[in-house]
Design brief:
- By secondary structure, the chain is mainly α.
- It has a single domain, classed as CDP-alcohol phosphotransferase transmembrane (TM) domain (Four Helix Bundle (Hemerythrin (Met), subunit A), Up-down Bundle), CATH 1.20.120.
- 73% of the residues lie in helices and 0% in strands.
- The protein has 9 helices and no strands.
- α3 runs parallel beside α6.
- The radius of gyration is 20 Å and the shape is globular.
Amino acid sequence: MLVSSYFPNVPVNRSSLSLVIVKHSMMNLPNSITLSRLLGLPVVVYCLYGDSLTVRWIGVAVFLVAALTDWLDGYLARKLDLVTDLGKFLDPLVDKLLILIPLLILIDLHLVPAIGVCLILARELTIAGWRVNQTQISGANIWGKLKTVSQIVAIATIITPLSIENWHLYGLVAFWLSVAATLISGLIYLIPNKNVV
């Protein structure tokens, strides 16, 4: 009786009740995976300051695993029909933390120019402020996903401790390409909506 009063269109049985609970739970499996990605961040921070190659390689591995789960939580949310507004909010937020914190450390290590990171940060703050004013939260578009992938590739390239000649130069090229992708994706977010910003 109590269940039917909350969900009048759902037949009262154990399987349908479980389905209702899962779909209406904010902390479902995809959202839990999203939050778990943050657990790898302290490890990455520690490894970035590590002196040994082993520690630095561990940092690369943990960073990539945390980055790859960005695909996993989104896939599960769509596959299991568990897309929620909380997930749409948490996923880009965790993405930003996984990108910006390593970039700030790379500035401290003199591995990336601060101006490039400032441009990325300015874009993220601008879009975050714009999204706050939206009545409906939308997921990331293709340019937003491209921006995230380019940033992941750039950071992974820079922190990978390979002794290949000019390897750091390749990392810097990847970094500036990610800055360009970040700015372009921000403009694409804002321009079609300039009448409502």
